[in-house]
Amino acid sequence: MRTTGIGGLIVVIWLVIGAIAAGQRGYFSNDDTNCAEASNTIVTIIAGPLNYFGVNPKVDCDLPEPSR
Q1: What is the share, in percent, of the chain residues with pLDDT greater than 70?
Q2: CA-CA distance, 23 to 15, in Å (whole number)?
């Protein structure tokens, strides 16, 4: 039995479920994105099915200011 094929299929299904969760949260509908919105979308997709068990990943992007 090919475990690599099964593992790959599980990863693809995991990411598809995460993309569905991100879509339900409206992450794909906003054209004006920033670091935090893009990061939240990516983390939501990676969290996959965990989103439906109450995981609500959020990322705060505090970028350093340039020195003067």
Answers
A1: 81
A2: 12
Q: Do residues 44 and 51 touch, judged by C-beta distance below 8 A? A: yes
Q: What is the pLDDT of residues 48-61, one digit of tens each?
A: 888 788 877 777 76
Cα–Cα distance, 59 to 43 (Å, whole number) = 8
Sign, CA dihedral 42-31-33-29, equals: negative
Residues 31-67 as b/e (b if ≥16 CB within 10 A, e otherwise) read eeeeeeeebbbebbbebbebbeeeeebeeeeeeeeee
- Its pTM stands at 0.70
